[in-house]
Design a protein that fits this description.
The chain is an alpha+beta fold. The protein is built from 18 helices and 14 strands. The chain has helices spanning 2-7, 18-29, 32-41, 46-49, 53-58, 83-99, 109-133, 141-148, 157-167, 179-182, 185-207, 212-234, 260-268, 315-327, 356-360, 370-375, 421-427, 440-443, and strands at residues 65-66, 241-246, 252-258, 277-281, 293-296, 310-312, 332-336, 342-343, 348-349, 383-392, 398-404, 416-420, 428-434, 451-453. α7 (109-133) runs parallel beside α11 (185-207), α7 (109-133) packs antiparallel against α12 and α11 runs antiparallel to α12 (212-234). GO terms for molecular function: cysteine-type aminopeptidase activity; cysteine-type endopeptidase activity. Keywords: Cytoplasm, Hydrolase, Protease, Thiol protease.
Amino acid sequence: MIQKNLRNINMFKAILTKDHLEKFKKYFLSDEKNLLAQNVCSKIDPFEVALSRKRIEETQHIYNSKIEAEAKPVTNQKNSGRCWLFAALNVIRLPVIKHFNLEDFEFSQGYLFFWDKIERCNYFLNNIVETAKRNEPVDGRLVSFLLYDPTCDGGQWDMIVNLINKHGLMPKKNFPESYSCEASARMNQVLKSKLREYAKAIRDLIQKGGSDGDVQKLVEEQMINIYRIVAICLGIPHDTFTWNYYDKNKFFHSIGPITPKEFYENHIKPLFNVDDKVCLVTDPRSTNQYGKAYTVDCLGNVVGGRRCIYNNQPVELLLELTAKSIKEGEAVWFGCEVSKRCASKIGIQDIKIHDFPLVFGVDIQTTMSKGDRLLYGESAMTHAMVFTAVHADETNEVQKLRVENSWGDDRGEKGYLLMTSEWFKEFTFEVVVDKKFVSEEVLDVFKQEPIVLPAWDPMGTLAC
C-alpha cells in the first residue's frame, strides 16, 4: 500500500546538475579567503583553526567561590565510557579526603564498573523478556533500538545510586584497574554478541509458549556465561577487604575486614548519602513541560532498582542551584554535551571559543535553539563531570564555572576546564545537588508518576 501511494506522489527531487556544480565551484573560488582556509585546514584540525585567539586571551581560570579543597589525583577514564562513575566518585571522595585527613584518594571505579556490567546485562535480558511479552516485533523500533547497543559503558545518576546502595564502595587500592576497565571496547564486543544471541533464544522460547519458570532458568544460564566473561576481563571483587592507609600526618590506619556495602553504610554514607542527592534536568522542548517528572522506557541498570527519573526544570534554576551548592562547599555532578564549542586541549567551554563563520562562512552548533537541537538530533547529553568553583560578578550573576574532568591532567588546566555560564545554558542538561538546596515545590515533582518517554528519546542518552 505504501509503495502504491508513493508512485502516485509527485516526488520533490533536487538533482545536482553539472551547471549546479560549476556554480558552487565558482562561488567558492570567487573568495580568496576560502582558498586560504582550504590551505590551512588541509594541514591543521579545522576546529583548531577556528579557535578565537582573542577569546583565549580574555579567559582566566580564576574564581571567587570555590570548594574548600580539590581532590588529588586528577582521574583518567582512558578508553572507556565511565565518566558518570568517575564524576560521581570524584564528588563523593571530597568529604572522605577531608574526614580521613588524606593527601589523596580514589574510590575503585573498576569495582562499580564490574557490578554495572553484570547488572546491566541482566537488565537487558529482562527488557528482552518484557518486550517479547508486549508482543513487540524484533524488527520494530523498540527492540531494534535495544539490540543496537545491548550494553554500553555510559550511565545516569540514578544508576549510580542503584549500584552504590546495592553493592557499596571500595577504595581503588583494593580493586585496581584492569586492561578492559581502561579499554572496554573488546569486552563490550564479546558481551554484545552474546546478548544478541541470548535475546533470540529468549524470544524463541517465549514464542514457543515457555513458562515464566523456563524463561527465568534460561536467563540464569545465560547470566552464568555473562558473569564469566566480565570476571575474566575485569577480575572479581573480594567479598571483604581491609583498607590500610596513611593520613597527612603519616599515621597508619586500618579499616576492615569489611564488606563494600558495610564500608559505604558505616564510613561513607554519613559523609555523602547518595539518597540525599537529587537530579534535575532541563529539557526545553515544547512537548515536555517544566515542573513535570519524566522517565525513559527500558532505561536502567538494576532490575528492581530505582528508575531513572527526570525532574524537568528551567536551566536558570540548575545554574542557580549549582552556584548555591558550591558556595556552601559541595561539588556538583553534572551531565552535558561536552564536545560542542569546547577547546579541550586548553580547557575552555565557551560558545565564543570557535569562530566558525571566519573559517567556513557559516556558523554551526548554536544556530538552532536548544530544544530544536534535541528534536533534530543535533544535541544530547554525552559526558558527566564535576563543578568545583564558580565566579560571579558584583550583581551575583554567575559568569563562569570550574570543571573537574576525568581525562587526565594533560588537558585543560591540569585536568580542569573553564565553562562560561552561556555555555552552561546551551549545553548542560542535568545537575545533581543535595535536596537541602532545593525548594519543596521542585522536590514535590519527584512525587509525580513520571511521563514515560520512548527508549530512543534523546533524554535517555547516557553520559560516557
